[in-house]
Amino acid sequence: MKEDDGSGPPNRELYALLHLSPDASDEEIRRAYRQWAQVYHPDKYQAPHMKEIATENFQRICKAYEILSDANKRQIYDIYGMEGLNSGLELGQKLNKVEEIKEQLEKLKRMKEQQKTLSHFRPSGTILANLSLPQFLDGDGIMEGMAMASEVQSQLSKRNALVIGGNLQAKEDSGGGVASAVFRHQISSDSSIEFIGSAGLNALIGVQTTRKLSLHSTATMAIAKSLRDGSINLSNSWTRQLSETASGNIELLLGPESSIGVGWQKKDENMSAGGEVKFGTHSFGVSARYTHRFSSKSHGRIAGRIGSTALEVEVGGGRKVSDFSTVRMLYTIGIWGIFWRFELHRGGQKLIIPILLSRHLNPVLATGAFVVPTSIYFILKKFVFKPFYLKRENQKALENMERTATQVREAREAAAKAQQLLENVANRKRNKQQETGGLVITKAIYGNRKALKKGDELRESNDELASQVLDVTLPLNFLVNDSGQLKLHDGVKKSGIMGFCDPCPGEPKQLHVEYTYGGERYEVVVDDYAELLIPHLFVSVDSIVRVHMHKSNEKYREIVIDKGGGESEDSPNRDTYQFPKGMNKPMHPPIETHFLLPPQEGEKPAPSKSSSGLKSMLSYPLKVHDSLKRLGKSKSMELILEGTHDPKDEQIVLSFRELLFLEDQLPAKHNDYHTLLRFLRMRNFDLSKAKEMFLNYLQWRKDYRVDAIQKEFKFVEFAEVKKCYPHGFHGVDRSGRPVYIERIGMVDLNAFLQVTSIDRFVKYHVSEQEKTLNLRFPACSIAVKRHIASTTSILDVKGVGMSNFSKPARYLFMEIQKIDSNYYPETLNRLFIINAGSGFRMLWKVLKAFLDARTLAKIQVLGSNYLSNLIEVIDPSNLPVFLGGNCTCADYGGCLLSDKGPWNNPEITEMLQAVSATEEANNEGNSDLASGDALLHDVGNGENKEDLGNGERAMSDRLAPRKIMALEVALADTNKVSTIATRL
What we know:
By secondary structure, the protein is α+β, with helices and mostly antiparallel strands. The chain has a 17-stranded mixed beta barrel. It has a six-stranded antiparallel β-sheet with strand order 19-18-21-22-24-25. Strands 26-27-28-29-30 form a five-stranded mixed β-sheet. A hairpin with a 2-residue loop joins strand 15 (325-334) and strand 16. The longest helix is centred in the middle third of the chain and has 74 residues, at 363-436.
């Protein structure tokens, strides 16, 4: 099986060599060149053989940089590959400017367009030969009748096409024929007209017009007049797209044989089905068919027909024998007798041979006619065809290996030399990652897909299989960046990466990686051109073939990654956490799954004066603990709102706090564990990037006056906005997260802009986000007795298409997306986009460009068959009836007006108000301490914790000395005692 067929991605070795994306900027190319030049510069090595290896690879790096840094050469390379460069295309006088290269490309496109037009001159034909076994046994010959039909279609221009056809048929002593012509004109993108004429036994003239009525509906109307008897036939048909894979149609025919018919068709990757019911003035009929594809080459079929002239069942199957040919055998039994039917399809030509076995329904013959050929087929397949094809494939593989043996040997030697130079740095990176519990590649194999599937045989050192794979553990450890991540770019063939080579040219390849991260073992397999991104980020659905997660007992559990709507295994990232079926599986759990960690026993010990320092002071959680204790709440309430912290996350949050504190940038508010963790996760635990994002967030809050919006902003047009923009929170999902719903397809943007402005709606959106963080999440946490920090959202896009994405809509979308992504990160657990039709899918391609990769990984786009996916995540009692649930919220005027949820429970809101009031009392008068005060509260939690529950009688007396003591300890660590003491 050949891998590079011209339709796949180009072989971009130069991008792989510099470890770049094909879309890399000039600055990224320069940075990559500097990095690799440092590794392979010959002056770094003293040993003669190492210097020789370095010189060879350094020249490869320089050559790649020379081409990719030159705009002209890079464009030629992207279009024509190395062949275009080696042919001197870039040196010609006519191709020395980018504009001229583009002109050459346009010329090439025009040539392809001409070839495409020529290819539209498509002939097709059918030969039908009816054979009769009873007639042959009676001595009258086996041929009962024959028919031939042929058609040629020519694309005259972009809008005009001509179809010329004809057919002949003969049966016994009679026969006939018809010649026909159809001229088709495309009036617009939505409508066309056809003029029809035929001569012969059924001579007629007619006209037919087709128009697209809406995004999902098409109508066709035709009128024809028979030249033989003068009768007129009028037909109308309507077709409606019912879902992504299903459509329905209604046809009305008026004339000498009037009828009405209703049909349905469904087709997807694995099956196709259809049915029709038709009633006429003199007949009726019902038919149904189902075809299932067992593989890319074979399928099975069953069909049935019943009516005034037919009663039969058809069973059979077919197989693709080459790229252009398919054979099929069908068995039919009905009132007309017992038949075999053989079909050969090649290109646009068909040969169909029905064989009548008996006109009588003999049970023995009927059974034998089905069992005998079926048995013969499976016997021949098992003992003849399959061994033959396997032998032929193995022979081709061996010939290919012999033909490329020298090329592969040289490539392996070059890869081994490159790995020698990478070894020291790769081992240093590996040791560093091992010390921190980061990403360590323990085993990586690249090569033949079939060989990788036989992992056990590879481990037994099978020479034939081992020669088709390459160990690339070392170069992958080298490519792990300082943040502990590994990324291989999408669309770039992996054999071009430094230290890699192609061990089996022409064969499909995969990369198999085993790695450890955070003390757990993982296994991942990706295709040759697919993106690999590990760990932290959500795994790309299209690129992962399978993922295994190894547990402490050295056994692994398979995780099937699906696009949604399909069945997949539940996949825990921790022992007890279950992901919904069909969901994209993250390489680390959602933000609130730390409540599934085993609770810590006992209280944290109070830090002693001798061991207290900046680190011990920063390590305690903030504010919520003390507030709840002062209210006399139990330890379980404290754990619910704060959650049990993941030790690894807690350590990096501590480091983040230290960084902000030492730079005097830790604020008095918005400094809690969960807020900092959200920004860290959004930046993949890169402290410098997380700090930049967090400080931008604090500045935005100040500039946008977010705190004032919460207190002062009144969205008086709320009720009117809800009418033209249906949205709102409604209930919780099965894990206790708030459910947010928007019905985008029902938005009236003109009415929306009449009752409010985009700026006011954005302020309203910010106030709702603050309400979610400060009220909805804590209320949901108390309701389900575990920490909740994200939402499940549903976006109904029924009827939405490109026309909905107007300039005001784009501006509103981008403003809200910018705020949510930059200032409220990691608050979305899952987004279901439902009722997505073909129009929205076109729009989705545009919208995706505005979304970051982490958000995209949480989104599942579904058609009209979405209910099963929603019910897996949300109980029907929390789903409105318009989404298939049971809730109506009739007392509130509708579900999206109710704001239904635990945050409206009086007992819960009273509890949260008390917590908030206590926190405000604690914060009163301490704003001048800023960064230091945000930490002092925690140090007090370590001493005399039992006293805190006795009321607030001695609170102010105890608080001041504790703050002073903690501040002195922190200042001693940072050498700022005198400065801060002056401030105090």
